[in-house]
């Protein structure tokens, strides 16, 4: 179980820098009158958080991983949700980077 939690932590660390950079870019775009979206993940049941920045979603995922580490237990549904959240964050951040580079 420790190996699995370490892999999840590794994903969170990788996503952290990307989320910070993306949120800074979103702030810059917002100040320029762009990025008028209300939330990153519209109509998404994967996250409970709703935000127009990435960090609240990453924080939600990190809290679930920390809870699993603390309890040293997890159920399959929680693990599946965390993996789905990580995948969605990876994909969306990559798509965002591509969209910013293209513009």
Summarize the structure.
The protein has helices spanning about 1-30, 55-70, 75-100. With about 100 residues, the protein is an all-alpha fold.
Q: Can you walk me through this structure?
A:
The longest helix has 30 residues, at 2-31. The protein has helices at residues 2-31, 55-71, 76-102. It contains three helices and no strands. The chain has one domain (2-102). It is mainly α. The N and C termini lie far apart (43 Å). The mean pLDDT is 91.
Topology:
Blueprint: H1 2-31, H2 55-71, H3 76-102
Helix pairs in contact: 1-2, 1-3, 2-3
Characteristics:
single chain; 103 residues; mainly alpha; 72% helix
Terminal CA distance reads: 43 Å
Low-confidence stretches: none
How many structural domains can be distinguished in the coordinates?
Answer: 1
Provide the succession of SSEs: HHH
Q: Could you give a short account of the major beta sheet? A: none
Secondary structural class? mainly alpha
């Amino acid at each position: 179980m420790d190996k699995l939690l370490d892999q999840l932590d590794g994903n969170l660390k990788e996503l952290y820098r990307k989320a910070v950079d993306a949120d800074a870019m979103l702030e810059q775009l917002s100040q320029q009158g762009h990025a008028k979206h209300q939330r990153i993940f519209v109509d998404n049941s994967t996250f409970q958080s709703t935000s127009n920045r990435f960090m609240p979603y990453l924080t939600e995922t990190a809290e679930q991983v920390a809870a699993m580490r603390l309890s040293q237990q997890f159920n399959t549904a929680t693990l599946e949700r965390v993996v789905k959240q990580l995948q969605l964050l990876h994909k969306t951040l990559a798509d965002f980077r591509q969209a910013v580079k293209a513009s």
